[in-house]
């Protein structure tokens, strides 16, 4: 057996010891063969925690890891290009195009902005003859890399979905795969993110806001620290803690759509990204496997709605100014997941807190517009 990489139980961040949450590691090669013990293990991870590591170091997973490395190189080239080229088409739709830094609320909520720029290429788009991607990556070599990566991620997430259907004894049309078919429209997308160093953006423009994902499953690759999750507890989620990057592994988590499709049995993972190292550029690749647009489920508000409608409403909530987010039901951003109390009783690190006078001014601005 390969030696286990030691993951610490806590890590120092902003002068405090913060938990590093441990989790199950699922073996992709075993899942591919529907190994009964591995199927049960992945199902339990989704029912109890809503996330796990996926070990891809095998003959099948190895090529997928190489696709990620190629995508990482592609992203670094893309994000180094001038803004006019990156933003050639802007954000064409919610799941396709470029979003500059500071487009959404940041890691520390009210009055802060996010610290990442993002390029999204949807699975539906890459399947088209002439995908609409900005000029820096619109060449045969880069399009091939994007197609390979989207194909790999799609296969991996479908293998997981299939194991979960088997684990839940779903048969025929009731299996989860049957609402995630490639030839039916969906908002499934590959999202490539570049977090700028907080030394460059300033402390009020950092990270990624706390949320659960719209998707059914999210497959996430990052070799760098910064991602935090809030594990579900018996009386609400526990404290935010880090996910340690693990070599050869992806981090997979359940999103709202699969929680809803499982009749609320699975946990949608509460997470955010914080600046870990103020001088570091952080890169992450997320594949959001989403249900076909016309899939029906009961959402966290008890409504019988389509996956498309849940996507559109939640995407709007993600991109709304924080003042409007604060007025929306909490079940939207957190997919109905419960939190026991404050993230941290001693509060967020002071250096990231927005100036209270500036906050009041911003609040006034939006109430005048509304
Ligand atoms: O950058 C990351 O590690 C996570 C990004 C994320 O949560 C998202 O795009 O939904
Ligand atoms: Fe997310």
TrEMBL record:
Does the record's keyword annotation contain Metal-binding? Answer: yes
Mind telling me which Gene3D superfamilies this protein's record contains?
B-lactam Antibiotic, Isopenicillin N Synthase, Chain
Q: Record's InterPro entries?
A: DIOX_N, IPNS-like_FE2OG_OXY, IPNS-like_sf, Iron_ascorbate_oxido_reductase, Oxoglu/Fe-dep_dioxygenase_dom
Task: List the keywords (alphabetical).
Answer: Iron, Metal-binding, Oxidoreductase
Question: GO biological process: any one?
Answer: small molecule biosynthetic process
One Pfam family hit: DIOX_N
Q: Where is the Fe2OG dioxygenase domain?
A: 185-291
Q: Does the keyword Chloroplast apply?
A: no
List the Gene Ontology MF annotations in alphabetical order.
metal ion binding; oxidoreductase activity
What PANTHER family would the database entry show?
2-OXOGLUTARATE (2OG) AND FE(II)-DEPENDENT OXYGENASE SUPERFAMILY PROTEIN-RELATED
Q: Which family does it belong to?
A: Belongs to the iron/ascorbate-dependent oxidoreductase family.
Q: What name does the UniProt record give this protein?
A: Fe2OG dioxygenase domain-containing protein
Organismal lineage:
Eukaryota, Fungi, Dikarya, Ascomycota, Pezizomycotina
């Amino acid at each position: 057996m390969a030696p286990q990489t030691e993951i610490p139980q806590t890590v120092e961040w902003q002068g405090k010891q913060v938990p590093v949450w441990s989790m199950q590691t699922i073996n992709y090669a075993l899942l591919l063969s529907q190994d009964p013990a591995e199927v049960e293990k992945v199902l339990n991870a989704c029912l109890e925690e809503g996330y796990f590591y996926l070990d891809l170091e095998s003959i099948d997973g190895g090529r997928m890891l190489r696709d990620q490395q190629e995508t990482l190189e592609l992203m670094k080239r893309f994000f180094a290009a001038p803004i006019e080229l990156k933003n050639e088409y802007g954000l064409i739709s919610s799941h396709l195009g470029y979003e500059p830094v500071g487009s959404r609320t940041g890691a520390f909520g009210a009055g802060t902005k996010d610290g990442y720029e993002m390029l999204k290429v949807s699975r539906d788009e890459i399947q088209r003859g002439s995908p609409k991607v900005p000029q820096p990556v619109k060449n045969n070599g880069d399009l091939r890399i994007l197609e390979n990566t989207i194909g790999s991620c799609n296969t991996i997430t479908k293998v997981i979905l299939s194991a979960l259907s088997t684990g839940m004894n779903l048969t025929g049309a009731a299996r989860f795969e049957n609402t995630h078919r490639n030839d039916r429209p969906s908002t499934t997308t590959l999202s490539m993110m570049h977090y700028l160093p907080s030394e460059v953006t300033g402390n009020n423009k950092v990270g990624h806001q706390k949320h659960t994902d719209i998707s059914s499953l999210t497959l996430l690759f990052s070799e760098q620290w910064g991602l935090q999750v809030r594990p579900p507890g018996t009386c609400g989620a526990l404290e935010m803690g880090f996910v340690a990057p693990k070599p050869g592994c992806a981090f997979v988590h359940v999103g709202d759509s699969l929680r809803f499709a499982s009749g609320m049995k699975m946990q949608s993972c509460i997470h955010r990204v914080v600046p870990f190292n103020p001088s570091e550029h952080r890169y992450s690749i997320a594949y959001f496997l989403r249900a076909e647009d016309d899939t029906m489920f009961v959402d966290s508000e008890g409504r019988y709605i389509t996956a498309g409608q849940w996507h559109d409403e939640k995407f709007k909530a993600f991109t709304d100014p924080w003042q409007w987010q604060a007025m929306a039901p909490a079940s939207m951003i957190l997919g109905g997941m419960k939190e026991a109390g404050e993230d941290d009783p001693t509060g967020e690190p002071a250096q990231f807190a927005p100036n209270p006078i500036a906050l009041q001014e911003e609040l006034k601005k939006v109430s005048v517009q509304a």
